[in-house]
Each structure stands twice: as structure tokens, then as C-alpha cells.
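Continuing from the previous page of notes. For each protein in this section, the sequence appears first, followed by its C-alpha cells. Read the first protein now.
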Amino acid sequence: MKVMVAILLVLNIPVAFTKMLPSFSILQKMYLGDKNYGGIYNRLNVEEYLFPEDSGELKFYPNATCILRMSAVLNVTTERNGSKKGLKGYHYFYERAPLLEYLKEEFGKPIVSNNTAVFRGQVGIMFVDIKDGDDSKDCSVLLWDGNGFHQAKGVLKHKNFISAQLWPAPTDGCVIDVNVEKSGGGICFPSKAKVEVRSGKKIPISELAIGDTVKTFSRGGEVVFSHVVTFLDQAPDHKGHYYTITTEDYIKLTLSEAHLVFEFRPLSAKLGGNTFRSVHASQIKPGDYILVHVPTYHAPIARKVMSVSTAERFGAFAPVTQEGTMIVDGVWVSCYADIVDHDLADSLMSPLKSFYNMAPQTLGARGLNVHRYLKQVLRPIGLRILGKEKFYQGPEGEETAGKDNTITSVYHQNI
């Protein structure tokens, strides 16, 4: 059944490898912000910076610098109509129509609405289309930060307003939120989280690389080492809120709230075994049991949770192993988040893992566009097909999550 659902989800994705914009933090850093709105560049500064060899000879119309500012974040390498070659050999647009055409060619059709309020909480490049009049000539292609325009002035409402068009940009730090009600969380571990590689050395997850093998458990409960095939996120400069789950024997696991961990659940004697299920980290509470690795045992061991706390931590890393699981800071965890069902998430990633195995260093290390697409496209499609109860809805929305994703196990735990 889960395989069929995975196939259905994949078939509903319109273009699996659509190119995505760089992350929004990168766009912000590259954007030549207006000096009047928190940036450091006025009109002349922009022209002199982008075309140093033509300084003093440029005669762009004032509003053309708005288009130039946006061009600076795109790294256009080929000549286009309405563009000019400048700094570092890149081409910069000074006309709006060619810029919009380029965005559509490179990043697909934008999300369109006749109300900018629809885009609250989303980020990316926005075109505000106003019919005729002087306002239609104002700066209209801008960076949208989820609440307003980044270091620029733009029109949010107008009597001749036609539409707002947004090309979404991914956010850093494992953010899942794609403007779906109550969604949020992340899929990462902080930089200092540790994994064990085949040599027996425990290293920070920030030092892990494509092709390394990390300790985990197989589906049969045996200790194995599994290759890292890709990363869903790598953001060493990210600072975010993480949950720390501490067991009664002081094993501490720190991870983002929507990441999946395995909760142990005793079964009745007549079933002859125990069960575990995947749950979001924010769902774990004192008194629950999670599955840990103890060197003297060859299978996962259940340990009682003593406390759950939150604090800010640096870094955001989300490796994916061939096995789909790993042992982080001594705790057995899934490589996935958001979708509450680990097996379903692993089924969805299986084709991509096979794809990366063909050329791990090229495809795995550079697979960020695919993963951004999964976060921004797969989630809303999945919500429509499976229903929101299958996805992370925030700590307050976890009442019914994971009720049907129990896995029967013959592990005989010491609890």
C-alpha cells in the first residue's frame, strides 16, 4: 500500500528536477539593496559596481537599476536581449520583460495571485504587475521576504493591480514551512551532533561527506554501516531552535522538532514481540521510550526519556544514508522528517538514492535543487493526497500523528 502511495505522489509531481532559485539567504546577500531602504547602493553605485569599466558612461533610466539589482543575484552567464556584460563576466538585465522571460525559462512558472497577502510566509523573487500609469513603471521585480520587500520599495496594493507573481526560494536551516497552515519544523541536526564512521571514530555531523559510511541498524535490527548518498541540507551558519531529548541514563539527542525518531512501544504478550513507530521529535515526552545503541548489544535498546528541552544551536545538517536511518549521539533516528511515516518517506527517496548512487560526488553533493523541490512541491502535493494528519503540523498539532505507522518487531528490549 505504501509503495502505491509513493508512486502516486511521484506521478503527481509535474517536473521532478525543476531548477530552483538559490536559498533566500544567498539572494539577500547578493542583492544590491537600495540605500534608502536599508541597503548600501544608490542608483549610481549600482551602475558603477556592476559596470566598472563603463563608469561615467552609463545612461540607464532610474527604474532600470531595480532590474539591475535583481540581475545581480542570478549569475547570468549568457548574453540576453536587454542585458549587458559587466562584473565578473556576468550579464545583467536592465529591461524588465527580458528579465521576466529569463526567470520563467530558468525557474519555471511563478505562483500567481491577485493578492500579495497570499504570499505571507513565503520568500523569493516577486513581480508586481500593475496596469498602465506611472506606478506600472516603478520598481516591480523585488525580493519578497515573506512580509514585505527586502531593502526596496514596492507596491502591495493598487487600484490597477493585476497580479503578484512569486518564484519561491528555499530557506536555509531545514525549514519545512511552505505556507501551509500550521506547518513548520525542520529536518536537521546541529553541527556538533556526532555519528560513528566505519573506522570507529565519532565525528561531528558537519564533517560528514558523501560516500562516508555511518553506523546504523538494518531493518532486521543488526548493526551495519551505511553509505551517505546525499544531504538534504548543509547550513553551517544557521542558528535555530532544536529539541534535546535526554534519557534516564543521560544519552542526549539534539535535533529539529519535525525530525523522525523511533519510539518504542511494548506489545501484548500474545503478539510475541514489541513495536516501535516513527514520531516527530516534538511528540516525544518524558516517560516515553526511544531506541538507542549500546555497544554491548547488537540490536536497538529501549531507554526511558527523562526530559525534553529546547535551545538555540548552530548549524543544520541532514545526511541521507542508503539505509534511510543512522545513529546520532547514540540514538537510532530516521534520515527524514515532516512525513510522519518513515517507511513512506524512505520509499519516496528510494528512486533518488538510486539516482545518486550512479554518480555520488556529482549528483549527491549537488542535489540541493532536488531537495528544495521536495520541500516546496512534494509537501503540498502530499497534503492533498494523504491529508495533513500525515505531515508535521507543529507541536500543537501532534495529537493523532503516527497512529498507523507502527512497525512490529521481535526485538526483546530491556526496559
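Done with the first. The second protein uses the same format. Note its length before scrolling.
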Amino acid sequence: MIRVARLMRVAGLRAAMGRRPLLSATEADVQPEPDVAARHRPVARDAAQQLGREEAWAWLWAWPARGPKGAGRCSRADGGQDSGSCCARYWGPGLRRRRGGLSPPRAAARCGLVMATEQRPFHLVVFGASGFTGQFVTEEVAREQIASEQSSRLPWAVAGRSKEKLQQVLEKAAQKLGRPSLSSEVGVIICDISNPASLDEMAKQAKLVLNCVGPYRFYGEPVVKACIENGTSCIDICGEPQFLELMHAKYHEKAAEKGVYIIGSSGFDSIPADLGVLYTRNQMNGTLTAVESFLTINTGPEGLCIHDGTWKSAIYGFGDKGSLRKLRSVSCLKPVPIVGTKLKRRWPVSYCRELNSYSIPFLGSDISVVKRTQRYLHENLEDSPFPWLFSFGYFSKQGPTQKQMDETSFTMTFFGQGYSHGTCVEKNKPNIRICTQVKGPEAGYVATPIAMVQAAMTFLSDASDLPKGGGVFTPGAAFSRTKLIDRLNKHGIEFSVISSSEV
């Protein structure tokens, strides 16, 4: 059994769902009710052009909005245009009524519908499906679709360089899941990371790309670029801080302009850590000011094994730490203010009384990811940041055997402290403590596919709860207001409160 520890200071659709159905629209055609089709067709085309996309969901009223004196005009600055046209320009946000016409959307109101069309036949595409981790992600997507009701199943595809290898992955998943027809139900897209045109073609066919091709420092950026340029969102399972922070620096504004979401580190790095900290905050009956977390990897008689690709990603990251420091210095971000007392730093090897074990610092991306989430929540949602730190403690080209994966599990334990409501933070010591846990199966190739696929399902079904617009996000920033934790609980990654008490 290997114990790992880490520590760190953590820093309405109602109006849109009006009297009549909402309208879907593409550049080529609209399908509203017959009596309003002619009136809304040019509006829908205008929306598609405004978005620079092949398609657009124009969330429009199915009746004219009455402006001042019933003139049917919008009372905004550009109120000279038909109010329906003004509404069509919003990608996703809902609208609300007020006297004198329609007012701009509430910040929290968002589009909650994702739909495949002829231009984008697939809801999601697993890119790198024939890779070691990609095959498990493919299997998890298939499992999710088989478990769903027929009416709620989503069209999806696998993508990679070799059609033969992709078919083999689908056949293997079909055999394991007892679904002989799986190969004929899933699309196959041939594309290569070295061929930008093929990446564009892949991105154009999907609403969401699950990128499983690493190391991301070498192969990740072309996928991000293709997705943004073609209006497609992307989720990856990167554990490389430099890549994650570089993508945010280079592409956040471009992604926001396109209204797409690039969500990194959505596997074991770093969903349990990032969402575990948020879960701890949400469960505390007061203000959380500090969190210390410990990761325990439990193995069976055959021990622990990690695939060679994961090892390479870590080694390249260590070898280029100077670039990460330079990137952070150029960003010139102001320090996030800390509430409450500081946590004591641990030595490289330290003893944890709570778990009766020694720990060493964790070397993955979790610290970087959680810090970025805390910054986002502080700057955009005005949440109090709090401190946090992380610690850790074989690699083969073949990766772990099935038996090794079956016998391995992880437990992430969070010890939080803070202040009860009404307590003066400046004059008192923390008077509340809480202990929470995140438990799950083998981290790299069982929990990671579960986390990635459930993040994708959440993205597709809970779009109204995502951050406004688009951009490059951490999992905690993207999913803090969604039901992702509930989904993970139902799929074997369990969040729970162990204890909570006043000091």
C-alpha cells in the first residue's frame, strides 16, 4: 500500500422556456412552428452568421416581443432591430421579460440543449481511441450508452490514425460489454495529429472531442487549435501543468470568442482533487479557509503498474520546469488573497498523524489545477480562496494487467478547517474542522475514463450550469455548479463526509 499526501491553501432559463417551444436553427434551414417559420428564418441565419458557425441554436420567443408602446422593438441600445433578431445573437443564454420588451439574459441563464445535426453528426468523438488510455475511455462511453434509455443515447464516434486498430478497440469493447452490434453503432473517423486538415474534419463532425492523445506537450495543442477554429469543445485528461497553463494563456480569449469550452485535466488528474476541495467547501457549515489532502493508493498482491506514456509525460514535465516558471512570471497574475491562518508547510518527507503514515509531495498537476480553480472562483464567483498542498507516494510499456487494475483503488482524504458563520476571521483561530473523502477504483485506467466520460455527459446535459460564454477552464471552474459529483457518485467515484465538528 502506497500513501500519498498533499496540502494546499485553497483559495434562469425560466424566461426562455416561454409559452411556446424554442426554435432550432441552422444556416440552411429552420424548423419552427409553421405560423412563425417565415418570420424567424432570416433571424436564424443572422444568428448563424454572428456566431461564425455552420449551425446555431437560436433561442427565440415564438411570438413578437412587445416593445415600448407595443411597437415590437427591443428597448436595448440596438433596439431599432426586431427584438427576435436581438435575441438570436445570444449563444446559449436565456432571455427574460420586462416592461418594454426583452432584457438581456441573466448571467446564470444558459443554453441547456446540445443536438447533433447533419453538419455535426456526433455528440462526441473519442480521439486517440486506439491508445492505451483511449481504449478504456471508448469502453466507458460504450458502457454509458448501453446503460442509457434508447431515446437518450447519443451518436458518437472514435478517431485515430488506423481504421483497423479502431475497429479492434470497438470489437474488444463489444465483446466485454456483450454488445455484438457495437462496431456498427459507432462512427469511425481517420485523422492524424500531424495532419491539421484531418483534425479540422474531425472537429467539424462533433460537438465535443475527448482528447486522449498524449503527451499533451507534444500532441495537445493542434487538437485545441482545431477545436476552437471549428467551434467544437474539447475535454482532455492531461496531467501536465505547463501544457494546461499554456493553453489557458494562449487560447482562453479565442475560445471565449467562439463560445467553446476547453476543459483540461478531467481524469484522475485532477477531478478527484479539484472537485474534492469544492465538495469539502460545500459540506462545511461555515467558511472553509484551509484544506490538507492525502492520497492513498491501495494495491493487491501483484502491485502497482502505470503505463509508459504516463511516465514520459511526467519526465518531460520535470525536464522543462524552467519553461513553466517563465510562463508564470510572464502572466503577472496578482496573488489570490488568503482568508484565515496559514497552513504550515510540510517537509519533503513528513508524518501524517491522522492517517498514521509518512507522505511525500505529489508530482502531478493537481496543485496547479486547484490553484487555478481557486483563482477563477475568486475572480468570477467571488468565492473565498483557501490554501491547499499535495503529496505522493512502475511503469511499463504494456501498462497494468486487468488483475492489477481490479485489485487497485484510491482514497483521497481531505482535512479542512475554517470558521463558523459570524466568527471574526481576523481575531480568532479556526473553530470548525471537517474530514471528507473521495474513493474510487484504479486511478489511471478505470477512474480516469469514468471521470472523463461523466464530465462529457455533464457538459452535454448540464450546459446551462457551465460558466458563461466559453474559454479554457479547469474541471472545478467548469463544473462547480453542475451535477458532476452526483454523476460520479453513481459511477463508482464516491464523495462522502467522514466527520465534521466544532473545535
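What the second structure shows: Residues 1-114, 386-395 have pLDDT under 50 and may be disordered. The chain has three domains: 2-11+270-445+482-502, 23-103, 122-263. We return to this in next week's lecture.
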